[in-house]
Amino acid sequence: MKYVDEFRDGELANGLASTIARAADTGRNYSFMEFCGGHTHAISRYGVTDLLPANIQMIHGPGCPVCVLPIGRIDLAIGLALDQGVILCTYGDTLRVPASDGLSLMKAKARGGDVRMIYSTADVLAIARDNPDRDVVFLAIGFETTTPPTALLIEQAKNEGIGNLSVLCNHVLTPSAITHILESPEVREYGTLPLDGFIGPSHVSTVIGTQPYEHFAREYRKPVVISGFEPLDVMQGILMLVRQVNEGRAEVENEFFRAVTRGGNRKAQTLVAKIFELRRTFEWRGLGEVPYSALQIRSEYAAFDAEQRYGLRYAPVADNKACECGAILRGVKKPTDCKIFGTVCTPETPMGSCMVSSEGACAAHYTYGRFKDVEIVAA
Amino acid sequence: MSTVKPGYTRPLDVRNGRIDLSHGGGGRAMAQLIEELFAAAFDNEYLAQGNDGAVLAMPSAGGRLVMATDAHVVSPLFFPGGDIGCLSVHGTVNDVAVMGARPLWLAASFVLEEGFPLSDLKRIVESMANAAKSAGVSVVTGDTKVVERGKGDGVFITTTGVGVLPKGLDLSGNKATPGDVILLSGTIGDHGMAIMSKRENLAFDAPIESDTAALHGLVADMLASGSGIRVLRDPTRGGLATTLNEIAKQSGVGMQLDESSIPVRPVVDAACEFLGLDPLYIANEGKLVAICAPEDAGGLLAVMRAHPLGRESAIIGTVHADPHHFVQMKTRFGGRRNVDWLSGEQLPRIC
Ligand code: SF4
Fold first, then answer.
1. Which residues in chain B touch residue A92, judged by CB atoms under 8 angstroms apart?
2. Where are the membrane-spanning stretches (chain A) (predicted)?
3. Does B206 touch chain A (CB under 8 A)?
4. Which of A200, A220, A342, A314 is nearest to A262 (CA)?
5. What contacts B172, CB < 8 A, 6 or more positions away?
6. Cβ separation of A1 and B274 shorter than 8 Å?
7. Measuring CA to CA, which residue among B204, B196, B178 is closest to residue B76?
8. What is the 3-state secondary structure (H, E, C) of A144-191?
9. Which residues contact B107 (CB under 8 A, 6 or more apart)?
10. Cβ of B350 and A93 within 8 Å?
11. What local confidence, expressed as pLDDT, does residue A178 receive?
12. What are the residue ranges spanned by the domains of chain A?
C-alpha cells in the first residue's frame, strides 16, 4: 500500500497556492464546480478554500451517490429486508440514509432485518454461497467507479449458477448529471449560476476515460479538468482551470495522468455494457427525474434483478419542504442558505440528502467549515 | 473408619472443553471454573477468602477513592497487540489513572457464551492476570454468567476499578482554561485500526498493532513532576476528536489544533485513507491527553517523553476562548477546519 504524505505536503500546497494566486486575474471572478463529493470532502477536510484567492469560488456539485439516492429506493430495500426476510447487503454509508417512517437501513437492522455492511462485492458473493437457503440482495449504488464490480458480481453469480442472489441496481451516470446541471435554467438562461468549469472525478475516469467529457467542453464551452482526490491534485486541477479560462480555452485536461487515460478501462466498459443498459429515466434525490442517467440490469440477467424478482414498484417520496438540497446540488445555493441548516437538519438528524454522507455539501460544511459562519474569539 | 470416599472432581479439560450452561448455574461446575481458572490466575488474599465481596483497607488517611467501570465487547477477541483480557484491565486502570488516582483493585464480571472454548477463556484470563500484575492491581472480586449459544459474542468482560487519589489533587474535564496547552502521549488510531484490519481481513505492508497499555506509570511520573496539569483523559472510543470535544464542552472553551504535530503512524494513516476513515476518530487504548498551564508545557512534555509509553508525546494545540466550543485544526495542508463530534459511527466511504 502506498503512503499518501507526498500528496498532502503543506509546503507544496503553499507553493501551488501562490502560483494560483499569481495566475488568477484580479479583474474577474472564477466559479468552478467540483462535481464529486470526494472532492468536496477533500476540499473541506484540508481547508483548501483557505488557500485560494477570494475571487475563486468552489461550487459543490451533486456527485455523492449516497446523497442522490432517493428515499423511495431505500424504502424498497428496507421492504426487502423487513417484509421479504432477505439478507440485504450494502456499502457502509448507505446504512444511515434516512428513509420513510423515520427508518433507515441501520434502524431496519435494529428491528430485526438482516442488513449487512460489505466492503466489496466479493463479500456479497461469499454471503450468498454461505447461505444457500436464504435470498441475498445487494443494494448497489454509485457512479461509474462502483459499477464494474457490480457487473462482475452478476456475471460471476450467473457463471457459478448461484440462484439466491440478486441486485437492486441504483447505478447512476456522471455525464448525464453534468448535462442536467448545464441544461438547468439557472445555468442556461438566468445566469444566476456562473460556472466557468468543472473539476471532474478521476476515479470515474479511470473507468470511462476522459473522452465522455469532450462534448461538454465543445458544446457548452466549459473547461473540464479530471483531478485526483488528494488536496494537491485538486489544487493543481484548479490551477489548470484558471489557465484555461484565462486563455479562453475550453478543453478536457487530465491532471490525474497517474491512472487516467482518454479511453479509460475498455475491459470494464465492455463488462458493464454486457450486464447493464440505460434506464429511460431515474429519480435523483434533490434533482428529480433525470433522463438516461442511470443503469438497469439487462433482461438476459433478469433473474439477478431484484426489481423483477420481487416485482418491486418504485414510489417517489417527497423531501422535507424546507430542504434546499435541489438548489445546493445544482450549485445555486450554499448550505447556509437553507433555513434549517444546522438547527433542524444536522448530521445526527439529516432532513435532506446533502446532510447524510460526509461527502454531501451540507454535511461537509457542517462538519468541517462551521467555524467560518461565526466570529472567532481570539485567545 | 468412614466408608465415604473423598470426592473426586476431574480437572477442567481446558484443551478440549467448552463453556456450557452449567458453568453459570451456581453449582459444582461453576465453582470449579472459578477455582481452577479465575482464582488460580488472579490469585490473591481477597479472592482466596471466597466471599461475595472484598473487604478493602483504606491505604492512606485523607485520601479519596476513585471508581470507574467499563464493559468490553471487542470483536475479534484476539487481535494484533492484545486481546479482550488485557484490554479489560488496561481500559479500567486507565480510567482510574487519568483521574490522577493510583489504581489498586479491580472487580471483573464475565458473561460467557455457551460453547465458548475453555482454552480461549484460559488465554484471556491469563492475559488479564498478567496485565493486572504489571499494572499493580489485584482482581479482588468477580462474577460469572453463562448465556445460551447465540446470545453473546463469546465473552463480554466488565471490569470495575478502584484507586486512591492523593490529597489535594483535583483533575477534571472542566478545568481547561484559555491559553492552556494540549499534549498527547503518542500516535493515534493504532488500536482501532488493528481491530479493523483484523476484522476486515485487510493486509497491510506492516502489521498494525494495538497500543493497549496501562498508563498509571506514565500518569504517576507526570503528576510527580509537579506540572500544573488541569485535565487528563484517555482518548478511547471516538478517538482524540471526541475526547477533545468533550473537554471543550465541559470547560466551555474552544481549541486550536495543529494537524502536522499530531503523531500518526504512516501505516495507520494509509489504512485510514484506504477505508475512508479519519484517524482523529479512531479508538486508542494506551494514550492520554493532558492539558496544562502554558508555562508548564515544556517540562511536562520532557517528563512524558522520558517514559516508555510517552516517547512520541507531542504538543498538539492550545485552548482558547470560544462560546461555540469549536475544536478547530490547522490542517497539514495549511487550511483550517472544524474537528467536530462524530455523527453516528464512522463508516467507510463507498467511492
Ligand atoms: S441543510 Fe439539510 S435540509 Fe437544508 S439543504 Fe442541506 S440537507 Fe437539505
1. 347-350
2. none
3. no
4. A200
5. B230, B231, B250
6. yes
7. B196
8. CCCHHHHHHHHHHHHHHCCCCEEEEEEEECHHHHHHHHHHCHHHHHHC
9. B54, B139, B140, B141, B142, B143, B159, B160, B161
10. yes
11. 86
12. 4-62+191-254, 71-174+264-309, 325-370
Shortest CA distance to B183 belongs to which of B235, B121, B120?
A: B235
Q: Which of A2, A367, A379 sits opposite B338 (nearest CB)?
A: A367
Angle, CA of A233, A237 and A240, to the nearest 5° = 140
Please report the sign of the dihedral spanned by the C-alpha atoms of residue A258, residue B334, residue A65, residue A331. negative
pLDDT at A1: 35
- Is A208:A269 a contact under the CB 8 Å cutoff? yes
Q: Does A377 touch chain B (CB under 8 A)?
A: yes
A377 vs B254: CB contact, 8 Å cut-off?
Answer: yes
Count of A-B CB contacts under 8 Å: 127
**Whole-angstrom distance between the N-terminal and C-terminal Cα of chain A?**
41
Cβ within 8 Å of residue B49, ≥6 positions away: none
Q: Starting from the edge strand earliest in sequence, which strands make up the sheet with B138-147, in order? A: B64-72, B155-165, B102-113, B138-147
- Residue position matching grid coordinates 417517489: A316
Cα B39 to Cα B50, B109, B141, B303: the distances in Å are: 9, 13, 10, 38
**pLDDT under 50 in chain B at which residues?**
351
C-beta atoms of A46 and B332 within 8 A: yes
pLDDT at res. A379: 42
For residue B184, give the H/E element and its range. Answer: strand B181-184
d(CA A8, CA A274): 39
Tell me which amino acid residue A207 is. V
Q: Do domains A4-62+191-254 and A71-174+264-309 have the same CATH topology?
A: yes
Q: Does residue A354 line the site of ligand 1, with CB under 6 A?
A: yes
Considering the domain A4-62+191-254 in this protein, what is its CATH number? 3.40.50.11750
The pTM score is 0.84
Residue of B nearest to A97 (CA): B344
Interchain contact A1–B (C-beta under 8 A): yes
Distance A64 CA to ligand 1 centre (A): 14
Residues in chain A with pLDDT values less than 70: 1-8, 190-191, 375-379
CA distance A335 to B269: 30
**Chain A CB within 8 Å of residue B344 CB:** yes
Q: How much is the pLDDT for B108?
A: 97
Check B333 against A5: CB less than 8 A apart.
no
- Distances in Å between the Cα of B318 and the Cα atoms of A193, B34, B243, B291, B335 are 40, 49, 14, 9, 17
φ, ψ for residue A183 (rounded to 5)? -85, -10
Give the list of residues 6+ apart from residue A230 with CB closer than 8 angstroms, or none.
A4, A7, A8, A42
Instruction: Please state the ipTM of this predicted complex.
Output: 0.75
**The domain over range A71-174+264-309 is classified in CATH as 3.30.9.10:** no
For residue A352 and ligand 1, the question of a CB distance below 6 A is answered with yes
Residue numbers of A between 137 and 176 with CB closer than 8 Å to B:
141-143, 145-146
Residue in chain A closest to B328 (alpha carbons) equals A371
The alpha carbon of B282 and the centre of ligand 1 are apart by a number of angstroms equal to 28
pLDDT digits (tens, 9 = 90+) for B189-221: 999 999 988 876 666 667 899 999 999 999 999
What is the A296 CA–ligand 1 centroid distance (Å)? 29
Query: Can you read off the three cell numbers belonging to residue A247?
Result: 486563455
Residues A328, A340 contacting (CB under 8 angstroms): no
In chain A, the residue whose alpha carbon lies closest to the alpha carbon of B335 is A47
